[in-house]
Design goal:
Shape: rod-shaped
Strand content: 15-25%
Helix content: 10-25%
Number of helices: 1
Strand order of the largest sheet: 4-1-5
Order of helices and strands: EEEEHE
Number of strands: 5
Largest sheet: 3 strands, antiparallel
Radius of gyration: 22 Å
Structural class: alpha+beta
Length: 78
C-alpha cells in the first residue's frame, strides 16, 4: 500500500505525462515510487523508511568507442 502526500506528475515513457492523484494506492509503478521518494511525497510506514540507500540505477547503455586520436607531433620550443 502506498500513500502519496501530493499528486504526482510523471512520465512513464519520456513523452506523455501521467498524474497519479494524492491518496492511498494499492500499486504504483516502480519508477513512480522512486520519484515520489525523491520528492518526499510518499508516506512510508516506519519499517519501510529509505535508509539513505540510493535506489538501484538502471544500467546505462554502452557508449560506442571513440576512435583514437593520432598523436600530435611535439612542437619545438621557440
Amino acid at each position: 500500500m502506498f500513500k502519496l502526500l501530493a499528486e504526482l506528475k510523471w512520465s512513464p515513457d519520456g513523452c506523455r505525462v501521467e498524474t497519479i492523484p494524492r491518496g492511498e494506492h494499492e500499486d504504483l509503478p516502480e519508477r513512480a515510487v522512486e520519484i515520489a521518494i525523491q520528492l518526499s511525497i510518499l508516506d512510508q510506514p516506519a519499517g519501510e523508511q529509505n535508509t539513505g540507500q540510493q535506489p538501484e540505477q538502471p544500467e546505462q547503455p554502452e557508449q560506442p568507442e571513440q576512435p583514437e586520436q593520432p598523436e600530435q607531433p611535439e612542437q619545438p620550443e621557440q
